[in-house]
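STRUCTURE:
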């Protein structure tokens, strides 16, 4: 079996893909972005489920959502000109610190 942390990383990257994809679906009114977004959702959940065979559920879920939140926020800045205000960037940094802390303290 592949490294569960690698599977969790893939799941998190796919979460970023589907979260950004939601913007492009325009409320699921555009067929191609909608189909790609749903595929990314299913794949993200699949890889998360595989990772959770080994990684504790609380840690795995928190890391998965953290990767998704940070990646989506960064792409929101890059793609949609969302705010780069210092307090917002600091909060993103806190999420990254939490992800690192969970990884370092996890038994898996």
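SEQUENCE:
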């Amino acid at each position: 079996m592949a490294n569960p942390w690698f599977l969790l990383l893939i799941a998190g990257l796919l979460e970023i893909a589907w979260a950004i994809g939601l913007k492009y679906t325009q409320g699921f009114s555009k067929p191609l972005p909608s189909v790609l977004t749903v595929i990314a959702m299913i794949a993200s959940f699949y890889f998360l489920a595989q990772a959770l065979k080994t990684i504790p559920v609380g840690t795995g879920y928190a890391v998965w959502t953290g990767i998704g939140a940070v990646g989506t926020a960064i792409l929101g800045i890059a793609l949609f000109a969302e705010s780069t205000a210092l307090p917002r960037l600091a909060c993103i940094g806190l999420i990254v610190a939490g992800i690192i802390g969970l990884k370092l303290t996890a038994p898996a």
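REMARK: The longest helix spans residues 57-80.
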